[in-house]
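Tutorial, part two.
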Amino acid sequence: MKGSALVTGASRGIGRSVAEKLQEDGFNVLTPSRSEMDLAVPASIEAYVAGLTESVDVIVNNAGINIIAETAHVRDDVLEETFQINLLGPIRLVRGLLPGMISNGYGRIVNISSIWSLVAKPGRSVYAGTKSGLNGLTRAMAVELAPHGILVNAVAPGYVATELTRQNNSLAELEKIRAAIPLGRLAEANEIAELVAFLCSKKNSYITGQVIYADGGFTCQ
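Running the prediction step on this input gives:
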């Protein structure tokens, strides 16, 4: 057993693939459900962390929400919930688990960002703000935690062929998306998981503070 890894938002899509890959690699994988740890509720995060009986070696902050709304029409509840789940929740979770990592002199943290932290699309202002914040958090934590042997990186996926992507886009829209990607296809969730797993492993011994865009070349155009 390589240690324990905690993956948020592991019930489907990228999160599920990451959890499965880490388990395959020998980690004891913790995948708290919303009833066990609600990232929208600070007290729930604190209670979950306090209830853990083992230290966590790897954190993958994958859970997030993306409610489409143009800036002029964003409701306060959407604004607050998106920032809480996408940005404040990960900060609180990492803060709670850091003492164990620091004590062990080892840790890997991977934050799942998004291409919308780099490029723009209408209706994504709040979501993009949280993911841009996550990128900044990644760089700052990498500098702070390097002396403790803790590496921090972010992976920013582009379009991924998940159930949610298929639900939110018609066949015609999916075809337009494929045509806009230099590689000519959407990513598979397991492809993102392979990258995350490498960053979480001891094979990654020198990469920290980076935001890696896994988007088939979409943001290069």
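The domain at 4-220 is CATH 3.40.50.720 (Rossmann fold). In part three we will examine how such features are distributed along the chain.
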